[in-house]
## 1
Amino acid sequence: MAKTLFDKVWDSHVVKRIKNGPDVLFIDRHMIHEVTSPVAFLGLKNRRISVLYPKRTFATADHNTPTKNQHLPITDPESKNQLEALEKNANEHGISYWGLGHKKNGIVHVVGPEYGITQPGATIVCGDSHTSTHGAFGAIAFGIGTSEVEMVLATQCIMQPKPKKMRITIDGKLNNGVTPKDIALFIISKLTTSGATGYFVEYHGEVFRELSMEGRMTVCNLSIEMGARGGMIAPDSKTFEYIKDREFTPKGDDLLKTKKYWGTLFTDKGAKFDKEFFFKGSEIDPMITFGTNPGMGISITKSIPKAKDVDNGKLTYIKSLDYMGYKEGESMIGKPIDYVFIGSCTNGRIEDFRAFASIVSGRKRSKNVTAWLVPGSHKVMEAIKNEGLLEIFKDAEFELREPGCSACLAMNDDKIPPGKYAVSTSNRNFEGRQGPGARTLLASPLVAAAAAITGKITDPRSLI
Amino acid sequence: MSYDSFKVLKSSAVPLPIENVDTDQIIPARFLKATERKGFGDNLFRDWRFNQDNSIKNDFVLNNPTYSGSILVGGNNFGSGSSREHAAWAIYDYGFRCVVSSFFADIFKNNCLNIGVLPVEVSQSFLNHIFEAIYNDAKTELKIDLPKQLISICNSKYSEKFKINSYKKENMINGYDDIDYLCSMKSKIKEFESKSPL
Ligand code: SF4
């Protein structure tokens, strides 16, 4: 029978099918961080069990870490406590730990691919919803809760009902100034934030084939924002080229064995999806959000939709515009902004900083804008330095911070002040996500760069 | 951790007819710094309950003494966003045992089931009936019968069947959790692992 890529990977990981219940799914790779793991380790302790396969779990500190002076002791006692707990738990159970200041440290979904932990056809979980990022390699990757983190530590399995399958096909060519972030924001604006709930998505078509691995990661990362468990893209020569010779990818005989499996990772002709969507690359423009969920995005040149044209949830819609201090029908172009955040597991990779540099190069930061440039990992930070981007940023009066999740979720000191507007390359514009009262506008690194230079929402195409 | 068993719950309910309530609202990230599962209820809906100076926002439903009970009734697409189980913990810790909505985000729903909060998905029209009944009379009770998979608005003609997979249902009724189950099949898992290509 013709099978989808998703079916192939999922079915080959089922240890047991429970009638009218979930599947017992084997997990190849497990990533943990300081925020969602401590209670899981406490659970293990209470049950007096240890981690079954410590080599299949990887720990990094990212959510709660400072992005300045990482060489100094952490000042926030609670953050410090969480990091110490992670280190202690990792050491006690023989799990590799890339803590603050470690040269492999960075955001969990950035370092996974960088070191070859992320592999095609693997099942990957982490207590963070943007685990969907790793689907860019043709893996089944999704976020889990702390009880499930405990399950994976204890048994290397979780229990999940098999999601339904959705395929999103985008063919054709992209317009100038359109980045992977715009593709994702475009899709979410069409499907809404719950449009893919219950589904696992495969992205398909010329547009995704043409994307770099970094670009594919950005798209898969945002799958969760339309409610999907995850998203994936069939691996191809680009994928295999990217993972070649990374620290944790198979080598020698192992490689030969895995290659056989990897060769099967595509959707067969005639395989059925429960739902399909088709778009054209040319439909997509640079995007920006105007509301308080990622589905509230529009082409940057458009005006804010009227409440009467919104299908459901009119009250919620108006509440959302109130929070943002915007009115229906207003144009987005020209709106003043106060902060720019470039970073996160969505857009904190080297390509994103290259894109940002392409616009700020030879220009100066607007004096009204505070900008936080936060690389996704030490490796990204090194590349920024080695490629000469740091010089460009300095000349344009931008400062580079140290790696971490930072203002993506504002657990550390990187909080946007109440009422201020931030153009962010991260993934969520929920109320207060970037700090109590903060107003977030999600956009691509190009749109963020244009805003950082002009101090207002600007079509980046006018600066390219 | 195993949890209290859940069979039949009869209680008044707290109405929150807002759509797309995300986990950052249920519990903001800055309250995720604990390393133990304690005290999350204090910060449930923190920024909707309290002003930035920590004074109380009187217009938010949890601050309105008219409404109380161990059932929270939310708008469509409840629990979207982050995978933080802390959101489910906060709801449990505050005293809710059941959340009713016309649609739940996946991870949130799983998290609830894993810690003993029952997510009950009802039709939009039934949800509207619930809100209407509560706004007519705040003392209106809902009855949730898990064995029968039935939710009813007490003293009214309205009731509706809800879905839950039979494995999770058994777990909830008995207060078992998945880890007990998985631990019982460790040898099978080990055999699987030894043949895994990755
Ligand atoms: S950058 Fe944001 S979304 Fe990504 S792992 Fe960190 S907190 Fe989660």
## 2
Amino acid sequence: MSNVPLDPTEKFQEYATPGALVSTEWLAANLNTPGLVVVESDEDTLLYETGHIPGSVKVDWHTDLNDPVSRDYVGPEDFAALMSRKGIDRDTTVVFYGDKSNWWAAYALWVFRLFGHTDVRLLDGGRQKWEAEGREMTKVVPTRAATSYPLSPRNDSDLRAYREQVIEHVGANGCMVDVRSPQEFSGELTHMPDYPQEGTLRGGHIPGAKSVPWKRAANDDGTFKGIADLRAIYEGEKGLAADDNVIAYCRIGERSSHTWFVLTYLLGFKNVRNYDGSWSEWGNAVRLPIAVGAE
Amino acid sequence: MSGPAAAQLPPGLAAVAADFADTPREMRLELLLEYADRLKPLPEPYASQTDLMERVEECQSPLFAIAEVVGDSVRIHATAPQESPTTRAFACIMQLGLSGLTPEEILAVPAAAPLQLGLTELVSPLRMRGATGLLARIQRQVRAAISA
């Protein structure tokens, strides 16, 4: 572990893992702290080029974290090479931030966790809050000394669910959270004649999944809701418990990374996996069970 | 850029494809950003009434576009938020590549033209889907305008 101190912000102390978040104030004061690297990861790949937090490096989910051919993540060699290029050591504290209330930042953080990178934190409020507060942005791309990041195996078993495992999970009536919009959940289709068709052949959701759109965990300013609100949604309203075996999914696994982060780090759930195949796999697969409608 | 696929592109889009092909890979995002910055501001009445335009639902970001047929020439207007620079870049590329063409020339643009610009390695498949959706909607508007 690096020696980068935790952010003592009061709100974070209520969460299961207080050190998983940092505030914009804390980050602004700690940008030059040795052992800390800030990583920007966005839906829009050009945003970093338009301006970013000083000293931050960019990790693109598509070109850096995805395998270029197979629908999978990069392997240990490519991940280690990426870390080396970005100046990240195995014990570096990595603070992620990005657009869209940190969807992609949470997704990148989740991939880093697949490789066992330990000290990962999210900037509460992400890019939106940093910008809204008028904090410094720069177009200067930092030159960080390359590291020799060790080859680290990718361990998918604890944090990632494959299609076959989801099928078993459905059969066992396991807990599932569908974090897409209500319209995607119900299976309502939006295309019209002459319009490009949706990318999935079937609409709806995985039978038994509970609908909790990811955004319910976020405030309008992109920050996470407080612990009481989060408990009310996931535990009170949806009946999930910290020792449940939960699988979260969306369309390709990015929005559900946000919910995975909430359940794991903020609520302290012990066994949450992200099904990155998500609806773009399930809704196209032959003979898998599908439920339609709002319930 | 040459080859049978590129040959089908209208001159404006072929120029964009050549621009990316001639740019080293590590500089292509910078080039894309230049296109984003070149998207023309909306004229009236669209600037004050975005709902006169068509939303490109295939795009992850709010992208609105309209193809105006004036005489024998088509004008493309489009808008997307500042925080969606890639979307703005695609809108600009379509504006530069299609504006001034005749309706028939626009309808002759291959549906997969956005995939022939040399951008598929830079941006995600979902984004490319937004770009092909933009082209499809422009073509549908032009088809509706000339058959009206």
